[in-house]
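Flavin reductase family protein
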Amino acid sequence: MTEAERPAADFQIPDDLSGITAEQFRASMRHYPAGVTVVTLNSPKGPIGFTATSFASLSLAPPLVSFNIAHTSSSLAALLDADSVVIHFLGEHQHHLAQRFARTAEDRFSDRSLWTTLDTGEPVLHGTPIWLRATIHQLIPLGDHTLVVGLVTRVHDNTNETPAAAPLLYYNGRYHRPTKLGD
């Protein structure tokens, strides 16, 4: 994808006038539960992946999703060069994958039994209840992160085969299983 197809935002954030420290903001955000996803992509150096709790659905028509990546992430350069990603919605049984993809980059794909490759080249993790393949639609640098907007081109929904797979949640700095869903 060319730079012209991925316009940067004209939006500029002024110097922080909020008076809130990063630590204060982080502490407050820890009390907002979020679903856990793992984003994977292919790069010339091999598979890349990272956990992301910032996933959001943006639009139904066209089907757009988003997530953020920190400017300090070891995966950022590969993501900025990527044309597509796979976003895996982790189930409550996949705490081990969330931890694996939060570790150093070398450890993430070291166990070949945990993943395979799509015909389009992206790595796909086994056993995730749902995964989406998305092409990179827009990259928007904001603050200390980049907002990634993806156009969904494929949906793999495995929830009928594993109906008990509730989502894995991240809350207050820890992974959690929901206690009750569907009521």
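thats it. The CA atoms of residues 62 and 156 lie 18 Å apart. The radius of gyration is 17 Å. bye
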